[in-house]
Design goal:
230 residues, alpha+beta, 13% strand, binds iron/sulfur cluster
């Protein structure tokens, strides 16, 4: 199987971003070891789907009809599309003779239940290893194409895929964001600090209204704004 064919297939079913990370390029910050999903795991495939701008542009970080619409959008469309692309890509790999494990999309956030495999894989870390972007001060993946306005899916596979990270250089949040601190100032529950996040505060507010304000206010994701280069 040519890696380019896999890349082209995943984009043909709707992925906006696709990257490959080698297992040896991941460190413990990713959470569960890829071997726990697939014996002989060699690669991670990271899929990015861009959020719809109109949904994000209306968010205020409060519980209102805009936040209810965000919730409906995420659970009835965005996460389902990611699950579907992840499953179809796994089937594509199986047809080529490889094993693949599409990780549940909602497991891609902060591990909340230690010890449970399905809740402990940091998709953002895998995305950085795959060269899709770097982490910003809002602790989100900042991509050159869409800023933080993407959500991710990950598959583990025993297919040997070349890393799509073009340069070894990892950017710090300060290098990604410069002097900007809009997300820190706008967070409704003051969960963001300089390169830190109070996960409990954020999760509490996310449970109330999905929030995503730190994604919505980031100038790097807005149309017409200069994009990140990380
Ligand atoms: S850190 Fe959490 S609570 Fe704060 S803006 Fe981001 S999603 Fe909202
Ligand atoms: S809002 Fe500013 S500080 Fe926050 S992630 Fe975006 S560029 Fe970085």
């Amino acid at each position: 199987m040519k890696p380019d064919d896999l890349m082209a297939y995943t984009k043909s079913i709707g992925a906006d971003l696709v990257g490959f990370a080698r297992v040896e390029d991941l460190d413990e910050s990713v959470g569960s070891l890829p071997e726990q999903f697939i014996p002989g795991a060699r690669s991670i495939i990271v899929i990015g789907l861009k959020m719809v701008d109109g949904i994000l542009d209306r968010l205020t970080g409060e519980i209102n009809h805009w936040s209810f619409n965000l919730k409906s959008y995420l659970f009835n469309y965005h996460y389902m599309e990611l699950e579907k692309m992840s499953g179809l890509t796994a089937r594509f790999l199986e047809k080529q003779g490889y094993s693949a494990y599409p990780i549940q999309v909602l497991a891609g956030g902060t591990p909340r239940k230690e010890g449970l495999l399905h809740s402990a894989f940091a998709f953002k870390r895998a995305a950085v290893a795959a060269g899709l972007g770097n982490i910003g001060k809002n602790t989100l993946l900042i991509t050159p194409e869409f800023g933080p306005r993407v959500r991710l899916a990950c598959l583990v596979t025993d297919a040997p895929l070349p890393s799509t990270r073009k340069k070894d250089e990892l950017l710090t949040p300060e290098q990604v964001c410069g002097s900007c601190k809009i997300c820190i100032e706008k967070c409704p529950v003051s969960a963001l600090g300089v390169n830190t996040i109070d996960k409990q505060k954020c999760q509490f507010w996310m449970d109330q209204c999905q929030c995503a304000l730190c994604m919505a206010v980031c100038p790097k994701g807005k149309r017409g704004e200069k994009r990140a280069t990380g």
